[in-house]
Design a protein that fits this description.
The complex is a heterotrimer.
Chain A (H helix, E strand, L loop, with lengths): L9 H17 L3 H22 L5 H26 L7 H18 L45 H25 L4 H20 L16 E2 L2 E2 L3 H27 L1 H18 L4 H27 L9 H14 L4 H18 L3 E2 L4 E2 L4 H14 L4 H10 L11
Antiparallel strand pairs in A: 1-2, 3-4
Chain B lengths: L7 H12 L12 E12 L2 E12 L3 E5 L6 H9 L6 E6 L2 E2 L5 H6 L2 E4 L11 H8 L6 H6 L4 H14 L14 H15 L3 E5 L7 H14 L4 E5 L3 H7 L2 E6 L2 E7 H6 L1 H8 L2
Parallel strand pairs in B: 3-8, 3-9, 6-7, 7-8
Antiparallel strand pairs in B: 1-2, 1-4, 4-5, 9-10
Helix pairs in contact in B: 4-7, 6-7, 8-9
Chain C lengths: L2 H14 L10 H14 L5 H12 L6 H9 L3 E4 L2 E10 L5 E7 L15 E3 L4 E2 L4 H15 L5 H12 L8 H10 L3 H18 L6 H14 L5 H12 L9 H52 L6 H19 L9 H24 L8 H23 L14 E5 L2 E4 H23 L1 H11 L1 H6 L4 H26 L6 H17 L4 H18 L3 E2 L2 E2 L1 H19 L15
Antiparallel strand pairs in C: 1-2, 1-5, 2-3, 3-4, 6-7, 8-9
The chains are: A mainly alpha, B alpha/beta, C alpha+beta.
Bound molecules: adenosine-5'-triphosphate and magnesium ion.
């Protein structure tokens, strides 16, 4: 056995190491505080503002939706920021979750529907597919089989996670197995998103075509229009976000996190150490996919409608820009970025009279395009990194992306 | 292939190679840990490697030398699964590993240090070492397990030995070339494989450090098998082991360093240049 | 001239001369003859009127079709015992109606002494109203008239119409003559086909089975597309066991089946070739797009997601040139396209050059980042164009790119698609030449293989990059210009239709060599177009599922060849 003489200093060094490890946990940077500050604001300040009447329920609802986006962003950061795999099908997974929940909501949606031959109520938005107007469905219109599992909330929730997870498993298996990497993988996932979008847009898929799932009414028996239901959904989304954040934090802090970073740095070398990178990539990819599905499930009831536009090619790249703006390689950056970009979107898509020109909603594309270019060229570390550089703190919770 | 008679030892070994074929003996022979049979590696019509037979015995330290482009690294690539040989077989520990993936080969206990030291840039020295700890290849154990006290001690022990202890929490991208070299060697030693492929461990190191490397490798020799590739002749002399000379992909001579050094052909092809 | 003589004359004419070639013996006498016949259209007796219609139809005069049409629409009137034409009704303030008179034969206005067109109160005119049967007859007679036209297009349409159900029996003799003597091969074919179709109608399996089956056989041999529905119908009837009292029913079924299979086989062959051709032209556009992508990716390891927008710019440049030249379908100015090609190239190349120096230059070897940044550029370009041009514009192909060449019976290759394929071939040759036989190409390859080395031996790699990028962009512009010939133009055409497909071409082909991109482009293009119309059971695959199927095929392919068809070689090729 290879032995190195027991050096007397080893003990000292052990202590040293222990100390430096401790100090690393004590020396928290911004990326540690951001989520907790956001959490506090989200859970205490926002409801307070609402109940004192300073913000409307619409704003709360909007923030809830943005938090659902933030959940997706955290997932993407895991796969992109840490593992270095640019996935352009997060919007697809998001939509799978969204459609799952949307189908549940449509089952229990208004108005009074037609009962098909098997005793199932045909969801109102499905009429478009058949295509009969409400009240005109002939006897042979049936609720498609794949709608049926989504009748109850528990099953829907499970499926809403499972289906995106399995989709990610399939895509990842074939992608990673053949060692498709880098841009090739990005393009492939992009193509898959587009294919999915095309399929969901088809009328004869019985997924309500481009109109999407509509006429939501109740969730678990509560009316969606009720403000307190909206606040509850908001809080649930917030808690889910915290949960997802903690989960991902655990992953990146564990040895798996280091393996993921190693994959990002130098995947071929990792193989020679006996690790099977594709297992870890698959794990991260599936986790990110399921997280995106969760985001979609929380988004659908708050939005009140779920259409295929949510999985357009541009939607997937948008997720990437959230993470990039916030700062990839820092989970809190993903949250920050998603909220920031969406608030910007909210700000810039309303018409304004500026000094010289009237700002139109369509100009948002310029802002977005500028964001894409700017974040890549000027602030590759995103907001988190910018802050860190301004304040000058060392931050051990971030893995810098180079 | 024509071989010059350097020493009894070499002639005898070569004769043994030629008779030996793991395939025919149905992998029962226990003498060699690694055996290459009829290996060729052809890139675009260029024959980078053409080895008729090469056997490495258990607990042997084999040094491979040869001029630039001789195919030394390619040999390691073939053994470790990075390059598929065009023809031929690689036997390791009684099994045919010719067509196995890098991971499978690594899991069988073949570790490798690359010619240009490869470490994970965004990980700290300590984290790099942690990843090299043996026996943590499963997802689950990595998700929930943590490094034990013993393992931590071992990591610090090695890093102390090679003088990287001060860089414990620095990201590897900030390390110097020599430090990276050390880190790569350290991770290899830590991962404790049965067979170590060490490609130019002394490149970029000072004389003292080279001596330390030699010392480390010789220590490992007790219960490991090593293949060491090196250009530095002083280093090779320090190792004082059986040497294989590769030239233009083929084995040109084999024997102890002092004998090989006398070989006219070798001198012309390599040492004399 | 007596009726008998005329009849003999006509029969002679139509039997012994190819009708189109029969020159009127003299314009003067011909006019007189026709006028006389037209006059008969106003006859009391229906029989005479019908005979006149037929005579007119067989006269071989081009003006007859218009006259018959007027007769059918009841626009002919008798005025002072002369047949006149009135296409226009006027109404004065007291609601009295007047007719503007024209010459029935020439259609020219009839002028009174003062040189004004006659406007006669409707009461003074006697209406010539064809009966139902006459109208029907006139309808067929119109087509009959076309048979005598010297214009091949008109003659061809006449020959076609005569055979369409129920078939104009009166045309048989003329068709017979045409099928033998017409100088145009296609017309001979159509005339024969029509003839057979008419005869098929006249014969039945019950009465004259032998003759009928003979016709069926012949139609099958001709691979007649027009005969197919009718043969199919009867065949289905036979197969379903209609009780047809036929002596040799098996024989009949067999003959029909053989003919139907023959036609179907040929048609699916022609359809297949047509699809392959459509695929080739789509593939050509994809190749033009992918070449630029592959070169820039190979050279700088950047992914240009705005490449589709450069194509779009090429298409809009073409649109601008069309506007500049005032080209429109009614007022064609084909020169515009000749100007559009270089303009499309240049405008896209200039934008590409700007993109390179402003953004891409900073992103070498960072493909993922370049993907994001160039996507942003794409968004901006799309929005600019959308604000400037709105959502949809039309580019009209130049006249020479309309229509197509019938290379085989029923196989028409559109000129536009031929042009695109040729254009693509030329571009590929140009690129090949540039890469392998010019200084720039040498420098480019050097930079591609080892940037640092190239730099140190004095290659200005920055300039090489800029030119290469601009050149690749320009080719995308050319692709856009070509696309206007076969597809629609929208601001987001690149993003929605092309960028992903052309990347899939690059992925499948590999960035190693041009040939990879070409093979993959043609392969993907052809596969798309071949899969699209395929039917599985009762379902047509369709564009969307074809895309998805293709994606699956590509993913499957990548499992075996991760680096594409032609992988870059060497040990540093790991991206
Ligand atoms: N993947 C590859 N593709 C093409 N050629 C290769 C590849 N791998 C190795 N070669 C060629 O094989 C030959 C042997 O290379 P190898 O790296 O094994 O030499 P070496 O003995 O390690 O040299 P050095 O002492 O310089 O490290 C070289 O000429 C090299 O170009
Ligand atoms: Mg080497």
């Amino acid at each position: 056995m290879f032995r190195i003489g027991a050096l007397k200093q080893v003990g000292d060094f052990l202590q040293d190491a222990g100390r430096s490890k401790q100090s690393s946990t004590v020396n928290r940077g911004i990326s540690f505080f951001v989520p907790w500050v956001l959490f506090f604001v989200g859970l205490v300040v926002i409801p307070l503002l609402y109940y004192t009447g300073l913000i409307t329920i619409g704003t709360v609802n909007m923030l809830g939706r943005y938090m659902a986006f933030a959940i997706v962003a955290v997932g993407l950061d895991l796969i992109w920021g840490y593992t270095g795999i640019l996935s352009l099908c997060q919007a697809f997974f998001f939509s799978l979750g969204g459609y799952a929940m949307g189908m549940y909501l449509a089952h229990h949606g208004g108005p009074e529907g037609i009962i098909d031959a098997n005793g199932w109520k045909i969801p109102a938005c499905l009429y478009v597919v058949y295509p009969y107007k409400v009240g005109e469905a002939p006897a042979d219109a049936l609720v498609p089989w794949f709608w049926k599992p989504f009748y109850t909330l528990p099953v829907t929730t499970v499926l809403g996670l499972l289906v995106p997870g399995l989709a990610a498993l399939a895509i990842g298996y074939f992608g990673f197995r053949s060692r498709v990497r880098g841009v090739y993988f990005a393009i492939l996932t992009q193509a898959i998103t587009v294919a999915g979008w095309l399929v969901f847009c088809m009328n004869n898929m019985k997924l309500c075509g481009t109109n999407g799932l509509t006429r939501f009414d109740r969730i678990a028996g509560f009316k969606l229009t009720n403000p307190s239901v909206k606040v509850s959904l908001y809080v649930i989304t917030l808690l889910a976000l915290v949960g997802v954040y903690l989960l991902c934090k655990h992953v990146v802090k564990s040895r798996v996190g280091r393996i993921l970073i190693a994959i990002r740095d130098d995947e071929p070398t990792l193989r020679f150490s006996g690790y099977k990178p594709y297992i870890y990539k698959l794990f991260a990819f599936c986790l990110a996919g399921m997280i995106a599905g969760l985001g979609g499930m929380l988004y659908a009831p708050q939005m009140g409608i779920f259409t295929p536009t949510n999985m357009e090619a541009s939607a997937s790249i948008l997720v990437v820009v959230w993470v990039a703006v916030g700062g990839r390689g820092a989970l809190s950056g993903a949250i920050l970025g998603a909220l920031a970009v969406n608030l910007l979107y909210n700000f810039f898509t309303s018409e304004k009279n500026l000094w010289l020109l009237t700002w139109k909603a369509e100009y948002w594309q310029f802002v977005l395009g500028g964001l894409f270019i700017g974040v890549v060229l000027l602030f590759p570390g995103g907001l988190i990194d910018l802050w860190r550089r301004l304040v000058g703190t060392q931050d051990n919770d971030i893995t810098t992306y180079t | 292939m024509e071989r010059t008679d350097n020493s009894m030892d070499q002639a005898q070994r070569t004769a043994e190679y030629k008779e030996y074929s793991p395939r025919e003996s149905r992998l029962s022979e226990e003498r060699y840990l690694l055996f290459l049979e009829d290996i060729t590696a052809v890139f675009d019509g260029f024959k980078a490697l053409d080895v008729e037979a090469l056997g490495i015995e258990h607990n042997e330290l084999r040094v491979i030398i040869g001029p630039n482009g001789a195919g030394k690294t390619t040999l390691c690539d073939v053994v470790s699964g990075k390059t598929r040989p065009t023809t031929g077989y690689v036997f390791y520990d009684g099994a045919d590993i010719t067509n196995q993936t890098e991971e499978e080969i690594a899991l069988r206990g073949i570790g490798r240090k690359f010619q240009t030291p490869t470490v994970f840039d965004s990980l700290t020295t300590y984290e790099n070492m942690e990843l090299a700890l043996p026996g943590h290849y499963r997802l689950w154990s990595n998700l929930f397990g943590s490094t034990t006290k013993d393992q931590e001690e071992r990591i610090l022990e090695i890093l102390e030995r090679v003088g990287l202890i001060d860089e414990l929490h620095r990201e590897a991208k900030y390390l110097s070339h020599g430090q990276r070299q050390w880190l790569a060697i350290s991770t290899l030693i830590l991962s404790d494989p049965k067979l170590l492929l060490v490609d130019e461990p002394a490149a970029g190191l000072t004389d003292a450090e080279t001596a330390l490397t030699a010392e480390l490798l010789l220590e490992l020799k007790d219960d490991h098998t090593l293949i060491v590739i090196e250009h530095d002749m002083d280093f090779v002399r320090q190792l004082d082991s059986f040497v294989t000379v590769l030239n233009e992909g083929a084995i040109m001579a084999e024997g102890m360093m002092r004998d090989v050094q006398q070989n006219e052909e070798v001198i012309e092809a390599y040492l004399g240049r | 001239m007596s009726r008998v003589t005329i009849f003999c004359l006509i029969t002679l004419l139509s039997t012994f001369f190819s009708p189109g070639l029969a020159p009127p013996s003299s314009a003067q006498s011909n006019d007189e003859f026709i006028r006389a016949e037209v006059q008969k259209l106003a006859a009391e007796s229906g029989a005479i009127r019908k005979a006149a219609v037929m005579t007119l139809a067989k006269s071989g005069d081009m003006r007859v079709e218009a006259i018959l049409e007027s007769f059918k629409l009841a626009e002919l009137y008798l005025w002072n015992d002369v047949v006149v034409l009135c296409k226009e009704m006027l109404e004065d303030d007291d609601y009295n109606e007047f007719c503007r008179l024209s010459d029935a034969l020439t259609g020219e206005p009839l002028l009174d002494a003062s040189g004004k067109q006659y406007e006669i109160p409707i009461e003074e005119l006697q209406e010539i109203a064809p009966s139902r049967a006459e109208r029907k007859l006139t309808n067929s007679a119109k087509f009959l008239a076309r048979l005598s036209s010297p214009d091949r297009e008109i003659r061809m349409s006449g020959a076609k119409k005569c055979g369409d159900p129920p078939g104009i029996i009166e045309s048989v003799s003329q068709l017979e003559a045409m099928s033998e003597n017409d100088p145009v091969k296609k017309i001979r074919y159509i005339a024969k086909e029509s003839l057979l179709l008419i005869r098929l109608n006249q014969t039945t399996l019950e009465r004259d089975s032998e003759a009928h089956l003979g016709i069926v056989r012949e139609l099958g041999k001709m691979k007649s597309m027009r005969g197919l529905p009718r043969l199919q119908e009867t065949y289905d009837g036979l197969a379903q066991g209609f009780e047809i009292p036929v002596a040799a029913k098996d024989e009949a079924t067999k003959t029909y089946k053989f003919a139907v299979d023959q036609i179907n086989g040929y048609q699916s062959f022609v359809g297949g070739v047509g699809n392959v051709f459509r695929g080739l032209s789509l593939g050509s556009v994809l190749i033009l797009m992918a070449l630029g992508l592959a070169i820039t990716f190979g050279l700088m390891r950047v992914i240009n997601m705005a490449h589709g927008e450069l194509m779009m710019i090429g298409a809009y440049a073409t649109f601008e040139m069309q506007r500049l030249f005032g080209h429109s379908p009614d007022n064609p100015s084909d020169l515009y396209y000749v100007a559009a090609l270089p303009v499309a190239f240049l405008s896209a190349a200039i934008v590409g050059y700007l993109i390179e120096i402003l953004v891409v230059r900073h992103l070498y070897r960072r493909p993922l980042e370049s993907l994001l940044a160039t996507w942003g550029i794409g968004l901006i370009l799309i929005q600019i164009v959308r604000i400037r041009y709105g959502d949809n514009i039309g580019v009209n192909a130049p006249t020479w790119a309309r229509g197509g060449l019938e290379v085989m019976q029923d196989l028409i290759v559109p000129y536009s698609r031929c042009f695109i394929i040729v254009l693509c071939g030329l571009c590929v040759l140009l690129i090949y030449y540039l890469m392998n036989h010019t200084k720039l190409g040498l420098r480019m390859r050097a930079t591609m293989q080892n940037r640092e080395m190239a730099n140190s031996v004095g290659v200005n790699t920055g300039r090489v990059d800029r030119y290469t990028f601009a050149f690749g962009s320009g080719i995308a512009g050319v692709a856009g210009c070509a696309w206007t010939l076969i597809g629609g133009v929208t601001p987001d055409m690149g993003q929605t239709n092309f960028i992903i497909d052309s990347f899939l071409v690059v992925v499948t082909g590999g960035v190693g060599e041009l040939i990879g991109v070409i093979c993959a482009g043609l392969g993907i293009g052809v596969l798309t177009k071949v899969i699209e119309p395929t039917t599985i059971g009762p379902f047509v695959v369709g564009a969307i599922w074809a895309k998805i199927l293709l994606l699956i095929i590509i993913v499957g392919f990548i499992q075996f060849k991760p680096a594409g068809l032609f992988a870059p070689k060497g040990r540093l090729s790991d991206v």
